[in-house]
Amino acid sequence: MTWSPLLNPPEFPAPEYDRLGSRLGAVLETANDVVVVPGEAIVALEAVATDLGAPGYPVLNVVTSPYGKLFGQWLESSGSSVLNLFSTPGLPVTIADIEEAVDRFSPRAIAIVHGEAASGIVNPLAEIAGFARSRGLLTIVDAVASVGAEPLPVDDWGLDIVVIGPQKALLGPAGISAVAVSQTGWAALAANAAPRADLSSVSLVDIKRDWLDSDRSVIPGTPAPLELWALDAALARFEAIGLQESINAHQTAKRAVRAMVRSLGLELWAADDDASALTTTVVVPVGIDPRDLARTARGSFGALVSTGVGPGAERLVRVNHTAVAASFGSVAANVVGLLAALRRHGFAGPDRGALDAVVAAYAAAP
Ligand SMILES: *Cc1c(COP(=O)(O)O)cnc(C)c1O
Known about the structure:
Blueprint: H1 14-27, E1 33-37, H2 41-52, E2 59-63, H3 66-77, E3 82-86, H4 95-105, E4 109-113, E5 115-116, E6 121-122, H5 125-134, E7 138-142, H6 154-157, E8 161-164, E9 177-181, H7 183-190, H8 204-212, H9 225-241, H10 243-263, E10 267-268, E11 279-283, H11 290-301, E12 305-307, E13 316-320, H12 328-344, H13 354-363
Parallel strand pairs: 2-3, 2-4, 4-7, 7-8
Antiparallel strand pairs: 1-9, 5-6, 8-9, 10-11, 11-13, 12-13
Helix pairs in contact: 1-9, 2-3, 10-13, 11-12
The structure holds pyridoxal-5'-phosphate.
The site of pyridoxal-5'-phosphate (PLP) has 14 residues, from helix 2.
């Protein structure tokens, strides 16, 4: 018999489970309810769409990746009419496009992904939230790939429903997720009058009933204790670093990688303000196959470089600077690895300055 710490994990205490909600709320800078969903973030997203979607509840759904597309499909399955607003592939949506679509479609809500790891962009969420508020529209945000790396002051921005997962910048487990819900958000989720089963695994309303509105002595739905312990540990690690410090580390990593790419005369895919702090996407020079480049960077130099994902990302490679990879050592190693791989594939850009750019970005960091 092999002993393993993963076997027979101790039960996760209900008071600690209750504290997870407020600890996650602190990460999101919100006093709203935060419910823990016993499934990966994609389950939480489906739960939101399933509760919210209903005939007579039109939603403007911004699509900047496959996640957004799926969200629109779930809403439609629940009876909503959905206007999918597609950005230029691989690029953020513009506020002008959103305004035009809202005027044309008169939705009750806007759904959007905040940061996109696949293409390395962030959508202009603060502006969109301000616009949504001015029109009385509910906001639903997939912040899985932005929480902990991008500023996300949920209450300041007045976001109603925000879905997060710990598995990206929080460096936590992938099998559990959370949703912050405002009072307006709860009202919208609960308004769906369709006939339903006594309990659904994809319903935040049921989690609210069975946990938030209970005496909170029994954790509902028997979530896997290993996931809860892992979330607890991920939050403890994150709290030790600090929210602002984590955001700063990701923003510095972003600046450093972008400075290095520029110094080589290469093209960055996203503009500074549109760029994700988790990954930097680089347009691969003509004549080099992005897949070969990523393979060499990874295989020969151990650099966290992969190809872009999805429409618009075919000519891109991504440098990952998420969580522990947002550290100086990791960023330095990854950009040098990318440069070495570029050279091996015949890239003949400037010889000097690349590392100076990284050093300068870190020397000037907060
Ligand atoms: C990673 C990610 C998710 C979650 O996907 P999982 O399959 O649960 O890991 C959702 N939305 C976005 C934008 C993501 O980057």
